[in-house]
Design brief:
The chain is mainly alpha-helical. Helices cover 82% and strands 0% of the residues.
Length: 260
């Protein structure tokens, strides 16, 4: 019989008898313990699920923060490199403009060569897409023009490129400021959520431990009362058999005495 002991009933003895009272009490304890075990298993299953979910999200957020920080570091490194190139290019353009300004103050022969760029300056300008096109103007003489006019044109062109480069640098810096603000906000949000998940982990862990302890306690009570019930029913059954046998013996003895 696979029926659980707390679902059984003991027949053949009165409820107020010693056997009836004892087994009924044990059945009542068994039923309460079984209900407790069922309820605590539900708690254990629920909190185990909550704990796994919270741990999973906590680990995911930790990875996302790590990845976000790594990406920000790479972006910042690229920004610093670009800003450095901009500053160097701006410095070169300003140096060239200064040279042109000085030369324009002196009379220069139309056929006098005008050298404006050194190799390192060329490299500095070539690294910045916004001003790289000016190299063609600086490296090649203007055909059919006088040096004075050429210098004036170059001055005007360089001033425009300096303006372009300053605007580009300002936009670059603004873009970086916005990126840093977004990064800080994203990390702050993720760190706050990590704290919330940590609270969930602690809460679920506490409830899970409590559920396991209570389930263990109820299981222990259940196992103990099941053994007592088995022993009580065994004693009651033996007592009942003895009573039945004695009753039959008495009936037979009475019949013999009555008819003798």
């Amino acid at each position: 019989d696979d029926t659980k002991f707390e679902e059984r009933t003991l027949s053949g003895c009165a409820e107020r008898s010693v056997c009836g009272a004892r087994t009924n009490k044990e059945l009542s304890i068994g039923q309460k313990s079984a209900q407790c075990m069922t309820e605590e298993r539900l708690v254990i299953d629920a909190q185990t699920g909550n704990l796994a979910k919270a741990h999973g999200r906590h680990n995911q957020l930790s990875k996302e923060i790590k990845d976000t920080k790594a990406k920000r570091a790479i972006a910042n490194e690229k920004y610093l490199e670009t800003l450095k190139n901009h500053n160097e290019a701006l410095k070169v353009l300003q140096q060239i403009l200064d040279v042109l300004t000085k030369k324009s103050r002196h009379k220069i022969a139309d056929d006098e060569p005008v050298s404006l760029l050194e190799k390192k300056q060329v490299l500095a300008l070539a690294r910045v897409p916004e001003v790289a096109p000016i190299l063609s103007f600086l490296e090649k003489p203007m055909e059919g023009g006088k040096n004075a006019e050429r210098l004036q044109k170059l001055q005007a062109i360089i001033k425009k490129f300096i303006g372009y480069l300053k605007d580009s640098t300002e936009a670059l810096q603004e873009k970086e400021r916005v990126a840093v603000e977004e990064y800080n906000q994203d990390v702050e949000d993720m760190e706050q959520e990590i704290k919330e998940e940590a609270v969930k982990i602690a809460d679920s862990s506490k409830k899970l431990s409590s559920g396991k302890a209570e389930n263990e306690k109820c299981t222990k009570t259940y196992d103990e009362v099941e053994k007592r019930f088995a022993k009580s029913t065994s004693v009651c059954t033996k007592s009942h058999k003895i009573f039945v046998r004695q009753y039959k013996d008495n009936v037979e003895l009475f019949a013999l005495m009555w008819f003798s």
